[in-house]
Amino acid sequence: PAQLETVIKQYVPELREAFLANTRAKLGLENAEAEDDELGGELRAAMAAAKSDFTRTFRMLADIRTATEAANDGGLAQAHREALLLALGGTVEAAGWIDKYERRLEREARPAPERAAAMNAVNPRIVLRNHLAQEAIAASEAGDDEPVRRLLAALRRPYSDDSEVAAYDRPAPAGGPPIVVSCSS
């Protein structure tokens, strides 16, 4: 028990630091600041409250620009901001988090395109979603294994922006049939 206690005392701080480093990478933050843990926690809470698609929301963050960066973009930054706000539930709290995030980005030296590329390298575009697995399984059961092959090929490149991967970057259709995929599928 004494050895276990010693290991746990070492492990917990290392785990927290690794989690914070991962959070910074997902948020595109190169420079460590004291508020980063809180910023990440507030985002995760907002996503949970809004029932956001975490994968898509983290990917959307790469398109956010600070006010300074957005000055010459012809409104594109505002459109990205509004899409993110909707993904976070469209609340006053979500808007406040975005403002806080934009202010935090102002203190970063890395240019927006570099930041976006770094973020997109750690935030996958696609993940295996139940409805995609169900579609591929149904096709395979009907004798067509090509959808399984295409899905597998896309999942081997989850960070890609290629069009064949983009086909798998979609939420489940509203009102679709119930998903019958199990963990063992």
How would you sum up the major sheet?
none
In terms of quaternary structure, what is this? Answer: single chain
Extract low-pLDDT stretches.
none
Q: Hey, roughly how much beta strand do the residues contain?
A: under 5%
Shape annotation: globular
Q: Which bin fits the share of residues in helices?
A: 55-70%
Mean pLDDT: 89
The arrangement of helices and strands along the chain is HHHHHHHHHH
Kindly state the number of beta strands: 0
First and last CA, distance: 40 Å
Tell me the number of helical segments per DSSP (H or I, 4 or more residues long): 10
Structural class: mainly alpha
Can you give me a brief rundown of this structure?
The chain is mainly α.
Architecture overview:
With 185 residues, the protein is mostly helical. The chain contains 10 helices and no strands. Helix 2 (36-50) runs antiparallel to helix 6 and helix 8 packs antiparallel against helix 9 (146-155).
Features:
185 residues, mainly alpha, 63% helix, 0% strand, globular
What's the layout of helices and strands?
Elements: H1 2-27, H2 36-50, H3 54-61, H4 67-70, H5 76-87, H6 92-106, H7 112-122, H8 130-141, H9 146-155, H10 163-166
